[in-house]
């Protein structure tokens, strides 16, 4: 049966073999227009996910300190009564939501419930690994919805900074068949990987530069400085070029080579390639976006480099996604131009240094908001909080102290064990669905999948759960779907109302795609309306000036082929602690030995993988594991005060034999 994978944003086409109620196998769909038969181990694991021995089949509710199976009516009645009491006593702001799901209908209904309650307390993975990109879109591009994607079909000079798409599929880049894509670009041009580790992608690239961790910004600042001194290649309108030149002036070849600990000759060779290229495309990943304020600066300089070399909104460079459900090209002069100071709002009361960004609060603030009594109930929309939030030692007691902690989930895990109410929802193969967050797609497109198998046990559609909960709280959310009469497809049809292609046509074929405009007139018009690309937002200029050299040994993140964040533990991908042989020798740690990694905030113990694929000064541990949980090393107070992004990469650490 034809479907699409919902593990990551690449949403590859799959064929699912089913016998009765048993899912036998998942294979790539050769006829899929984007992935063309490609799948990865994560997608092929969907049968194991569906038949997981710890799958949740019935609602559960805590009584006498224990979670016990119950009925939907009893669970939702109790949850609704307790939430209503909390709202009556403490106001709607005492109820918080955490949004983390790939289920489109459930996500939208949860958003509707959040809006109906009227609480400002909203959290998402954005402040765990992704704030830099919308921030730079906002400050430099004048609109945070300006979502740039590399023109992979035509790129001939691609810089991949802190991103390993061969394993991650680029995540926010959405790169189906990443190995073939990287090889093809390297064949016709150059692919440079900038990463402290010789990654799987670096092994396919034409060149690899391994700077000291947390100094990617210096490499980009050097390139920008040299382009400005050499004369920019772009004729697009810009503003702030003099301020930019002053900001990057310190990043000479000599200074950058020393700070980043790379050879001057390698930096010069990189610049020669940039200068000779027709177009320079730059993509960043979690190696950048998890570095708090350094992420903002690095992402900014990546955009500036593309603007100066004429890559923005041009073939071979970056194109901007207009959306499929909504169409940005139709907005015209109504497409907002945001102020150069940024778009922020009031933050959580317990953290006066933090602010709201995109109407969300920093995840790092959640334990403090609970401890202060400001948040008394949390509705978790499919997130693995224990393995994703910073400072686990503070998070777990905070979650345990909540009056209500309701979570939707398909498999029992460390987070559901802390809940007061567990709401089992359909897994990806049990529900019809359309692709969510269409601006993350590699095409201007949407996909549809019917349900492949019937739901196990008493699992229900997530949208139905939130519609029923809303009803018990006195909110009718029927404009999206009526829990008494609507089907899953009815709700999906509402989500596609007004889209480029209607639901019936999409459902009949399985996907729909609109032509991609490049260059896009709506982007050029927007840039002209704001007076040109804003090259030197004061906020980012100040952050660059304030950066200090990193510590001698720091934590860096790593994604894995058989795991995505807190998902797919059952595939057995080990959380190895990757260290350079010289760092291992200095700490007395050998390959295969247990090693304790310690920060100022905590420690974890894992198995050392001593390997010269990583440079000295970097300790790489994949995130999302319970056993070797990197969040025990992080500090909820160590955040970028602009966006609230916590520091997951660049945390100073030490190594010790366990």
TrEMBL record:
Record has Coiled coil as a keyword: no
Single annotated GO MF: oxidoreductase activity
One Pfam family it belongs to: Molydop_binding
UniProt keyword annotations, A-Z: 4Fe-4S, Iron, Iron-sulfur, Metal-binding
InterPro entries, sorted: Asp_de-COase-like_dom_sf, MoPterin_dinucl-bd_dom, Mopterin_OxRdtase, Mopterin_OxRdtase_4Fe-4S_dom, MopterinOxRdtase_cofactor_BS, Prok_Mopterin_Oxidored
PROSITE patterns in the record: 4FE4S_MOW_BIS_MGD, MOLYBDOPTERIN_PROK_1
Organism superkingdom: Bacteria
Residues annotated as domain 4Fe-4S Mo/W bis-MGD-type: 1-54
SMART domains xref list: Molybdop_Fe4S4
Protein family (similarity comment): Belongs to the prokaryotic molybdopterin-containing oxidoreductase family.
Name of the protein in question: Molybdopterin-binding oxidoreductase
Classification of source organism: Bacteria, Bacillati, Actinomycetota, Actinomycetes, Mycobacteriales
């Amino acid at each position: 049966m034809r479907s699409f994978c919902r593990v990551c944003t690449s949403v590859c086409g799959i064929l699912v073999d089913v016998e009765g109620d048993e899912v036998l196998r998942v294979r790539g769909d050769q006829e899929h227009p984007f992935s063309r038969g490609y799948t990865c181990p994560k997608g092929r694991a969907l049968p194991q996910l569906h038949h997981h021995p710890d799958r949740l089949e019935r609602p559960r509710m805590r009584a006498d300190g224990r979670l016990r199976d119950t009925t939907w009516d009893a669970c939702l009645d109790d949850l609704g009564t307790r939430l209503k009491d909390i709202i009556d006593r403490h106001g709607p702001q005492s109820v918080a939501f955490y949004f983390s799901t790939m289920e489109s209908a459930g996500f939208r209904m949860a958003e509707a419930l959040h809006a109906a309650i009227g609480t400002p307390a909203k959290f998402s993975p954005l402040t765990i690994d992704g704030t830099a990109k919308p921030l730079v879109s906002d400050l430099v591009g004048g609109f945070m919805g300006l979502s740039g994607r590399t023109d992979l079909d035509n790129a001939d000079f691609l810089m991949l900074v802190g991103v390993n798409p061969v394993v991650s599929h680029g995540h926010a880049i959405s790169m189906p068949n990443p190995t073939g894509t990287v090889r093809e670009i390297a064949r016709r041009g150059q692919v440079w990987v900038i990463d402290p580790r010789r990654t799987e992608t670096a092994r396919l690239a034409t060149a690899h530069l391994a700077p000291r961790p947390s100094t990617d910004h210096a490499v980009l600042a050097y390139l920008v400085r040299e382009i400005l001194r050499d004369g920019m290649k772009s004729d697009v309108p810009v503003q702030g070029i003099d301020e930019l030149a002053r900001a990057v002036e310190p990043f000479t070849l000599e200074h950058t080579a020393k700070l980043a600990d790379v050879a001057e000759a390698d930096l010069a060779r990189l610049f020669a390639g940039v200068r000779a290229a027709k177009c320079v495309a730059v993509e960043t990943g979690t190696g950048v976006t998890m570095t708090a304020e350094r992420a903002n600066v690095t992402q900014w300089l990546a955009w500036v480099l593309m603007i100066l070399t004429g890559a923005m909104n041009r073939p071979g460079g970056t194109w901007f996604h207009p959306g499929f459900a909504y169409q940005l090209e139709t907005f015209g002069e109504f497409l907002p131009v945001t102020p150069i100071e940024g778009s922020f709002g009031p933050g959580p009361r317990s953290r006066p240094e933090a602010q709201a960004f995109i109407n969300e609060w920093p995840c790092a603030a959640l334990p403090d908001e609970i401890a202060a009594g400001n948040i008394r109930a949390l509705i978790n929309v499919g997130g693995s909080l224990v393995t994703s939030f910073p400072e686990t030692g503070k998070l777990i007691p905070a979650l345990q102290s909540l009056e209500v902690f309701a979570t939707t989930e398909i498999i029992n895990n460390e987070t559901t064990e802390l809940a007061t109410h567990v709401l089992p929802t359909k897994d990806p193969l049990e529900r019809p669905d359309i692709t969510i967050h269409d601006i993350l797609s590699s095409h201007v497109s949407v996909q549809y999948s019917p349900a492949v198998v019937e739901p196990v046990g008493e699992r229900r559609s997530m949208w139905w759960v939130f519609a029923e909960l809303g009803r018990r709280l006195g909110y009718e959310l029927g404009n999206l779907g009526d829990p008494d009469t609507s089907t899953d497809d009815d709700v999906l049809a509402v989500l596609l109302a007004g889209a480029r292609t209607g639901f019936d046509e999409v459902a009949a074929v399985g996907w729909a795609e609109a032509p991609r405009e490049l260059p896009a007139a709506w982007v050029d018009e927007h840039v002209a309306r704001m007076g040109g690309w804003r090259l030197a937002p004061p906020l980012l200029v100040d952050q660059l000036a304030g950066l200090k050299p990193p510590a001698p040994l720091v934590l860096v993140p790593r994604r894995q082929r058989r795991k995505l964040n807190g998902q797919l533990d059952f595939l057995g991908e080990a959380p190895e602690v990757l260290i350079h042989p010289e760092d291992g020798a200095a700490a007395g740690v050998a390959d295969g030995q247990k090693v304790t990694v310690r920060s100022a905030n905590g420690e974890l113990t894992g198995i050392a993988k001593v390997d010269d694929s990583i440079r000295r000064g970097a300790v790489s541990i994949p995130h999302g594991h319970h056993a070797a949980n990197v969040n025990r090393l992080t500090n909820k107070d160590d955040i970028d005060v602009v966006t609230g992004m916590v520091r997951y990469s660049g945390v100073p650490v030490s190594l010790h034999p366990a």
